[in-house]
From TrEMBL, chain A:
<feature type="domain" description="Dehydrogenase E1 component">
    <location>
        <begin position="25"/>
        <end position="321"/>
    </location>
</feature>
<keyword id="KW-0786">Thiamine pyrophosphate</keyword>
<dbReference type="InterPro" id="IPR001017">
    <property type="entry name" value="DH_E1"/>
</dbReference>
<comment type="subunit">
    <text>Heterodimer of an alpha and a beta chain.</text>
</comment>
<dbReference type="GO" id="GO:0004739">
    <property type="term" value="F:pyruvate dehydrogenase (acetyl-transferring) activity"/>
</dbReference>
<keyword id="KW-0560">Oxidoreductase</keyword>
<keyword id="KW-0670">Pyruvate</keyword>
<comment type="function">
    <text>The pyruvate dehydrogenase complex catalyzes the overall conversion of pyruvate to acetyl-CoA and CO(2). It contains multiple copies of three enzymatic components: pyruvate dehydrogenase (E1), dihydrolipoamide acetyltransferase (E2) and lipoamide dehydrogenase (E3).</text>
</comment>
<dbReference type="InterPro" id="IPR017597">
    <property type="entry name" value="Pyrv_DH_E1_asu_subgrp-y"/>
</dbReference>
From TrEMBL, chain B:
<keyword id="KW-0809">Transit peptide</keyword>
<dbReference type="GO" id="GO:0046872">
    <property type="term" value="F:metal ion binding"/>
</dbReference>
<dbReference type="InterPro" id="IPR027110">
    <property type="entry name" value="PDHB_mito-type"/>
</dbReference>
<dbReference type="InterPro" id="IPR011053">
    <property type="entry name" value="Single_hybrid_motif"/>
</dbReference>
<keyword id="KW-0479">Metal-binding</keyword>
<comment type="function">
    <text>The pyruvate dehydrogenase complex catalyzes the overall conversion of pyruvate to acetyl-CoA and CO2.</text>
</comment>
<keyword id="KW-0560">Oxidoreductase</keyword>
<dbReference type="InterPro" id="IPR000089">
    <property type="entry name" value="Biotin_lipoyl"/>
</dbReference>
<dbReference type="Pfam" id="PF02780">
    <property type="entry name" value="Transketolase_C"/>
</dbReference>
């Protein structure tokens, strides 16, 4: 059983293009989320809205380890996952504003978006429900005999749900190709890991079922990617599931309406100042002389334009027509994906 | 370009708040993430962060101001070189300050329609389930269910069966007997005792395009999995704007068996029939069990298929056809009659038919309708019958509050009130947890005698 401590140094052996891509992808998520927060403040986004700011390196690093055909599924803190797998910022933002141009035609909202095309299976609002669902996606791939892997993302809070362990047991029993990614941002809403369990090494809980795992520095995109590649190789080799406990941090509250009194302002500021994943890549780009301040400014501008465009689209897209209330309750046809994947 | 900072909405219900404290002053440089102010919402005191960088130009609302409406400008954020006085803010020139969020138009009255009705047959369809002259075989419900699964697994390689003891044990109730030998362990999957987990795995496999049949050893245990049945399987198509279909069948015995007490004796028909996105089937005869299960497996939606342990061993005639299916939403008239309509489904049909026999001896001809599917419900056949008989009694095993019979009564009241000559009576199980003692259990269950009594009431005999 692999048990490793958290610290893991990034290899400097990484190409300029790769670093630039991570920088751009992470920045897109951050700026998108800031804009979403702003639109929420203006009343254009309603209900629950859980921002991913601070955790960007987790999905960007793992997407770098994925190949076409791999699937992903996550919780309600899902905007970053969608952008990282290539879903359109316009469609995501318009779903947040509840408009017809959104990925779910405005019927899902922040917590419920999907994309067959990008193999993104949601967007689930019940804590940990995505864990067996994700194992089911992997079950389908194994059944069909392809080499796809499913990334199942869940938080340290979800790690205390019973269905996670039912799923661990079956995933290992049936050697399902699934990477369980525990995004440990240290707080389940307002309850810190230490206040919810004495078994705080979450990846180690897989050991009881025979699932190997390790802890990864989630503020270092290169470390996340390297761990992701190892996990994916394990799954593709038919050896069953793998657990990555990615140590990360969310800068914002649990949702927009969380006053976050359970931690100090200094704790948050320290993470932002010292461990920020985007700043880390920015430093690597500048000190490695891969990019100039000017180059990065140009990327910043490019990202800002994408985000502003998505916000404009999300405001201009009409609300769904009333007859949408009555559509999509029952499928009348074979669902997409059924035919192409016929065994 | 100067930017107005607006009073933010910081909770789903906030319309106004108190600007408790400014944490910046005019002239301060701020960057994204810096805390600008503390704002008291209807729920808590929140820190309000800057989104853009710039210089705090003017604080437009004083600390301590109460009842500040969401979207009121509270400060100006300047770019380097600008002064607050330069910053005349024509609405069109504001980059991040958006006009007052438009309120969505008032919801006009949505059509009074339900998803059930949308798929229900408008005119009664009483065509026979199989062509006249078709040879039949006598078969138990158990054999019929097994044949349905085997035929569909043969027909579609994405169909597989999973559940507790479905494989090597040959099925807790022997429904899947022989299927492991025939289809192998890839397609007949024994699970550990983890209902929540394997219902979720099955649902995930369906989202990915397979067609799972998930067997619950009994539906009592499906309560552990009901989150996935409802929140994951039934709602995902809608939540995804039509992208993610979930073709899955959840099946197993439902309702009271015999002397197994409260935790193992409950009819869930009304529970599942309440959920838009699910289809709900509850067959009585072997022919219906076979024809409806085949339809369920082919349906692109999640289907709840409620069987009954007591009926597993009962024999019926089943048409000897190579591919026999029965459509959803088509009730069957199990016994025609002119004096009263008895509406039932599942094992309730046994009591309804027995009562009809007894009533016939007294000269009352009951028309017995087997709904067969509870979502969609074939209202048309029920209404057509009530228009003929002018009286209705419903029969089911479930609890009386929120029963299927309650729903049928309400539907008749709205749509056939003028044809009713008596109040509709709902015969149900008693409003008690199922007792173990033989005499008490018998008393808790619906009986044919109670149905006879109800019919006599509505026919004033």
């Amino acid at each position: 059983m692999v048990r490793k401590p958290a610290a893991k140094q990034s290899t400097p052996n990484v190409s300029k293009d790769e670093l630039l891509r991570y920088y751009r992808d992470m920045l897109l998520i951050r700026r998108f989320e800031e804009k979403a927060g702003q639109l929420y403040g203006m009343g254009l986004i309603g209900g629950f809205c859980h921002l991913y700011i601070g955790q960007e390196a987790v999905v960007v690093g793992l997407e770098a380890a994925a190949k076409d055909g791999d699937k992903r599924i996550t919780s309600y803190r899902d905007h970053g996952h969608m952008l990282a797998c290539g879903m359109d910022a316009r469609g995501v933002m318009a779903e947040l504003t509840g408009r017809i141009g959104g990925y779910s035609k405005g019927k899902g909202g922040s917590m419920h978006m999907f994309s067959r095309e990008k193999h993104f299976y949601g967007g689930h609002g019940i804590v940990a429900a995505q864990v067996p669902l994700g194992a089911g996606l992997a079950f389908a791939d194994k059944y069909l005999g392809n080499d796809n892997v499913t990334f199942v993302y869940f938080g340290d809070g979800a790690a205390n749900q019973g269905q996670v362990y039912e799923t661990y047991n079956m995933a290992e029993l049936w050697d399902l190709p699934v990477v369980f990614v525990i995004e440990n941002n240290q707080y389940a809403m307002g309850t810190s890991v230490k206040r919810s369990t004495k078994s705080t090494t979450l990846y180690g809980r897989g050991e009881a079922f025979g699932i190997p795992g390790e802890q990864v520095d989630g503020m270092d995109v290169l470390a996340v990617k390297a761990a992701g590649e190892k996990a994916v190789a394990h799954c593709r080799a038919g050896k069953g599931p793998y657990i990555l406990e990615v140590m990360t941090y969310r800068y914002r509250g649990h949702s927009m309406s969380d006053p976050a009194k359970y931690r100090t302002r200094e704790e948050v500021q320290k993470m932002r100042d010292e461990r920020d994943a985007i700043e880390h890549v920015r430093d690597m780009l500048l000190t490695g002389q891969h990019a100039s301040e000017e180059d990065l400014k140009a990327i910043d501008k490019e990202i800002k334009d994408i985000v502003n465009d998505s916000a404009e689209f999300a405001k201009d897209s009409p609300e769904p027509p009333l007859d949408e209330l009555w559509t999509d309750i029952y499928a009348t046809d074979v669902p997409q994906g059924g035919a192409e994947q016929n065994a | 370009m100067a930017t107005e900072i607006l009073m933010p909405a910081l909770s789903p219900t906030m319309e106004e708040g108190t600007l408790a404290k400014w944490l910046v002053k005019e002239g301060d440089n701020v960057k994204s993430g810096d805390i600008l102010a503390e704002i008291e919402t209807d729920k808590a005191t929140m820190e309000f962060e800057a989104v853009d960088e710039g210089i705090v130009g003017k604080l437009l609302v004083e600390a301590g101001a109460q009842g500040v409406k969401v979207n009121t400008p509270i400060a100006l954020l300047l770019e380097e070189g600008e002064t607050a006085d330069d910053a005349k803010l024509p609405a069109s020139a504001k980059s991040a300050s958006e006009p007052q969020a438009e309120k969505p138009p008032a919801q006009s009255d949505a059509p009074a329609q339900s998803a059930v009705e949308a798929v229900a047959t408008p005119e009664p369809d009483q065509s026979p389930d199989w062509p006249e002259g078709t040879p039949t075989r006598t078969m138990t419900v158990r054999e019929a269910l097994r044949e349905a699964m085997a035929e569909e697994m043969e027909r579609d390689p994405t169909v597989f069966l999973m559940g507790e003891e479905v494989g090597e044990y040959q099925g807790a109730y022997k429904i899947s007997q022989g299927l492991l030998d025939r289809f192998g362990p890839r397609r007949v999957v024994d699970t550990p005792i983890s209902e929540y987990g394997f219902a979720g795995i099955g649902t995930g496999a369906a989202l990915a395009g397979l067609r799972p049949i998930v067997e619950f050893m009994t539906f009592n245990f499906a309560m552990q999995a009901i989150d996935h049945i409802i929140n994951s399987a039934a709602k995902t198509l809608y939540m995804s704007g039509g992208q993610m279909g979930c073709p899955i069948v959840f099946r197993g015995p439902n309702g009271a068996a015999a002397r197994v007490a409260a935790q193992h004796s409950q009819d869930y028909a009304a529970w599942y029939a309440q959920i838009p996105g699910l289809k709900v089937v509850m067959p009585y005869s072997a022919a219906d069990a076979k024809g409806l299960l085949k339809t369920a497996i082919r349906d692109p939606n999640p289907v709840i298929f409620l069987e009954n342990e007591i009926l597993y061993g009962r024999s019926f005639e089943v048409p000897d056809l190579p591919d026999f299916t029965i459509p959803f939403g088509k009730a069957s008239i199990a016994r025609p009659g002119r004096d009263v309509t008895i509406v039932s489904f599942g094992i309730g049909m046994a009591h309804a038919l027995e009562a009809a026999e007894t009533l016939a001896a007294d000269g009352i001809e009951a028309e017995v309708i087997d709904l067969r599917t509870l979502r969609p419900i074939d209202y048309a056949t029920v209404i057509a019958s009530v228009k003929k008989t002018n009286r209705c009694v419903t029969v089911e095993e479930g609890f009386p509050v929120g029963a299927i019979g309650n729903h049928i009564s309400a539907h008749l009241m709205e749509n056939a009130f003028d044809w009713l000559d008596a109040p509709v009576i709902n015969c149900t199980g008693k409003d008690v947890p199922m007792p173990y003692a033989a005499n008490l259990e018998k008393h808790a269950l619906i009986t044919a005698a109670e149905v006879v009594e109800a019919v006599k009431k509505v026919t004033y005999r």
